[in-house]
Design brief:
421 residues; binds ligand EPZ; four-stranded mixed beta sheet; alpha/beta; 32% helix
């Protein structure tokens, strides 16, 4: 089992390049492999285990996928299978993205129910609701989702759930609607940058989607989609993570390949906490000349503060000069990292959907355990700021969403070693 040994007291200085966006490339690769009648080429694809897992799922359905550096070559599927088996889908929730495209392309799908994970139950009722609105018959039996439809018929729907818009359901239903008969209007659509990138990719394939970036997506169905070439947007959450890493070590890091439009709420909260952001056309310089200030953060769908940055901002606020409050409104159980940070000397009191963070002067290295990819990232960041050595276990969580995290951080002055222990 691999671990990361993080020597503390390092100040990060230099340039960190941001890789392609994990949560964009996953649905885009699905669309390319299943919906396209021609091959597609995807550039700026990060080297992540989630991408490797999804590639296995798509190859299991009949796709031919080749990788050269950060480019994926996805050949059209000649004999598309309609079943995505448990042994593959259980590894990654995003495998559920094949459901809508398979029904749209083949008229049927059999997909294993995706597992939950450490951040709470991960229902898919909105995915099912959306496909049923399009005329699919969907049933769940023995851990599998069966969906079928002679043809999908465009309609109006509202996909808002009790926790707001659903990124996954928006992606699934939007992809299915591209090949439906007639027009589909999706109200309550997610507006995350990766949903917009997926919509731009679908339109480059010949789809006809309007309202990109808004909460109302209008999809005019077309007969077929062609292959295309696309460069995936940069990863907003990876960028935000590295910005926090610079701030928590009081470093001076240039995070390259991100725009302020991708991370409005992250930028606003970092500045409110006393971090200085100096933007230029290609990225942002992150310095923290003064004491970190306590702030309150509430996670929300885009353009709100992303839940995928909640652990990272919590780590930073552990060292603020006062008490901060974080409210997690998107996932129901996403404070597991608080206990691990407390092992490092933090003073965090989770209380339902809120966590009270009482700032402390310093953190101390300790053995800690990653519970999901963002929790793992914050433990590495806290370890770099802490006195002494931090050993982060269950590193496989981190590798799902961060490309060679220790390599990128060591290039700017961190002291992190990956060991097999
Ligand atoms: C995507 O997950 C991301 N994953 C998650 O990132 C991210 O935390 C989440 O969106 C929110 O931004 C990928 O894109 C691969 P949702 P997803 O559907 O689509 C509830 C990471 O760190 N809900 O937007 O599963 C759900 O329980 C990962 O990269 C329903 O109730 O999230 C949650 O409370 C972790 N019914 C809320 O909506 C449904 O059918 C938002 O979930 C679907 C979701």
């Amino acid at each position: 089992m691999e671990k990361l040994i993080v020597k503390g007291g390092t100040k990060l200085e230099g340039t960190i390049p941001v890789s392609g966006c994990k949560n964009a490339v996953l649905p885009i690769a699905v669309a390319a492999a299943i919906l396209g009648d021609g091959g597609s080429v995807l550039h700026n694809v990060p080297n992540l285990t989630d991408v490797t897992t999804l590639r296995a799922v798509l190859e299991g359905l009949g796709a031919t996928i080749k990788r050269k550096n950060s480019t994926l070559y996805i050949e059209p599927i000649n004999h598309l299978e309609y079943e995505a088996p448990y042994e593959l889908v259980r590894k990654m929730r995003a495998s559920i993205y094949v459901l809508g495209p398979l029904v749209a392309k083949l008229g049927k799908a059999k997909v294993s129910f995706p597992g939950g994970c450490a951040i709470g139950p991960r229902p898919i009722d909105l995915h099912i609701r959306g496909l049923e609105h399009l005329g699919a018959e969907v049933m769940v039996e023995k851990g599998y989702i069966y969906a079928q439809a002679e043809s999908l018929i465009g309609t109006e729907m509202n996909l808002i759930g009790q926790h707001g818009p659903s990124v996954g359901a928006t992606a699934n239903v939007m992809m299915a609607a591209t090949l439906a008969q007639g027009t589909t209007v999706i109200r309550g659509a997610a507006r995350e940058p990766h949903i917009s990138d997926l919509a731009h990719f679908l339109n480059a394939m010949g789809a006809d989607i309007e309202g990109i970036g808004t909460s109302v997506l209008t999809v005019h169905g077309v007969k077929q989609l062609r292959g295309t070439e696309h460069t995936v947007i940069s990863d907003d959450i990876e960028a935000g993570t590295f910005m926090v890493a610079s701030a928590i070590t009081r470093g001076d890091v240039y995070v390259k390949g991100i725009t302020p439009q991708q991370i409005p709420a992250i930028s606003e909260k970092l500045v409110a906490a006393g971090v200085e952001l100096d933007w230029d056309a290609n990225g942002v310089r992150v310095t923290t000349p003064h004491e970190l200030q306590p702030i309150n953060v509430t996670t929300a769908p885009f353009p709100g503060f992303p839940t995928d940055m909640q652990a990272q901002i919590m780590g930073l606020l552990c060292l603020a000069a006062g008490t901060s409050v974080i409210t997690e409104n998107v996932h129901t159980d996403r404070f597991i990292h608080a206990a691990e940070l407390n092992r490092m000397g933090a003073n965090i009191v989770p209380d339902g959907s809120k966590a009270i963070i009482n700032g402390v002067p310093k953190l101390s290295g300790a053995p800690v355990m990653a519970s999901d990819l963002r929790a793992g990232a914050v433990l590495v960041a806290a370890g770099m700021a802490a006195a002494g050595e931090t050993v982060v276990s269950r590193v496989y969580h981190i590798d799902r969403g961060y490309e060679c995290i220790e390599k990128k951080l060591n290039n700017v002055g961190a002291n992190i070693t990956r060991v097999n222990a």
